[in-house]
TrEMBL record:
<keyword id="KW-0472">Membrane</keyword>
<dbReference type="GO" id="GO:0005886">
    <property type="term" value="C:plasma membrane"/>
</dbReference>
<keyword id="KW-1003">Cell membrane</keyword>
<feature type="transmembrane region" description="Helical">
    <location>
        <begin position="182"/>
        <end position="203"/>
    </location>
</feature>
<feature type="transmembrane region" description="Helical">
    <location>
        <begin position="12"/>
        <end position="30"/>
    </location>
</feature>
<feature type="transmembrane region" description="Helical">
    <location>
        <begin position="66"/>
        <end position="86"/>
    </location>
</feature>
<feature type="transmembrane region" description="Helical">
    <location>
        <begin position="158"/>
        <end position="176"/>
    </location>
</feature>
<feature type="domain" description="Glycine transporter">
    <location>
        <begin position="99"/>
        <end position="172"/>
    </location>
</feature>
<dbReference type="InterPro" id="IPR005115">
    <property type="entry name" value="Gly_transporter"/>
</dbReference>
<feature type="transmembrane region" description="Helical">
    <location>
        <begin position="37"/>
        <end position="54"/>
    </location>
</feature>
<dbReference type="Pfam" id="PF03458">
    <property type="entry name" value="Gly_transporter"/>
</dbReference>
<feature type="domain" description="Glycine transporter">
    <location>
        <begin position="13"/>
        <end position="87"/>
    </location>
</feature>
<protein>
    <submittedName>
        <fullName>Trimeric intracellular cation channel family protein</fullName>
    </submittedName>
</protein>
<keyword id="KW-1133">Transmembrane helix</keyword>
<comment type="similarity">
    <text>Belongs to the UPF0126 family.</text>
</comment>
<keyword id="KW-0812">Transmembrane</keyword>
């Protein structure tokens, strides 16, 4: 379906860029956690490829693309190497990393949804796997790093919601038979812009209604300082 918008070579190049940026985020967290070089490489690989690997295993697209395309496997290692030697400089380009990360989020939630649907899943399941493709690597990254996944933390700017919106646009476009280059681009751009706006204005998901307990507030606020 995405071939209506991107040629295979362009799609592959976009995948590589998204994988590289996701890997950068994983490698940076490994440095902050004082991991050794192997740990940095592992976290980079898991962050970059975890979501797509999970999707491919669920839909039966085996062996997964991460193991059939050497570029997919080597790109996170390149990112890990870059961070290993130049992590102070990479940290200073965090804004650019966030922008590319948002672009990768938008692209992967759409490609994940369309690939799942192409393999016979229903619309709801396809959109769910689109979300998993976009955010799964980050969840695995946080678990390995012994952190509460950013996906479920109230003190983190919206990340899953933009992916949900992008995947939902694709699913609805398929449902009403209007999926084409324009609607695909709309889904990618919508998720991308929502993520950037969430970063800019610190949009966060609401917590439980009439929440009374504040026992963990100081610790949580300190963690975001």
């Amino acid at each position: 379906m995405l071939l209506e918008l991107f040629s295979p070579s362009v799609q592959h190049a976009l995948d590589i860029v998204g994988i590289f940026v996701f890997a950068i985020s994983g490698a940076l967290l490994a440095v902050r956690k004082n991991f050794d070089v192997f740990g940095i490489a592992v976290l980079a690989e898991v962050t970059a490829l975890g979501g797509g690997l999970f999707r491919d295993l669920v839909i039966g697209a085996v062996p997964p693309a991460a193991f059939t395309d050497l570029g997919y496997f080597l790109t996170p290692l390149l990112a890990a190497l870059l961070v290993f030697f130049l992590h102070p400089q990479v940290e200073r380009t965090q804004f650019a990393v966030n922008v590319f990360d948002a672009a990768g989020l938008g692209l992967f939630c759409v490609t994940g949804t369309t690939k799942a649907y192409d393999h016979g899943l229903g619309l709801t399941a396809s959109a769910t796997l689109g979300l998993a493709t976009a955010v799964g690597g980050g969840v695995l990254r946080d678990i390995i790093a012994n952190e509460v996944p950013s996906l479920v933390r109230w003190d983190r700017d919206l990340y899953a919601v933009p992916a949900v919106v992008g995947a939902a646009i694709v699913a609805l476009s398929i449902r009403f038979e209007v999926l084409n280059g324009i609607t695909t681009a709309l889904a990618v751009v919508t998720a991308f812009v929502l993520r950037l706006l969430a970063l800019r204005y610190h949009w966060r998901a609401p917590r439980a209604w009439n929440r009374r307990s504040s026992a963990e507030e100081p610790a949580e606020e300190k963690a975001t300082a």
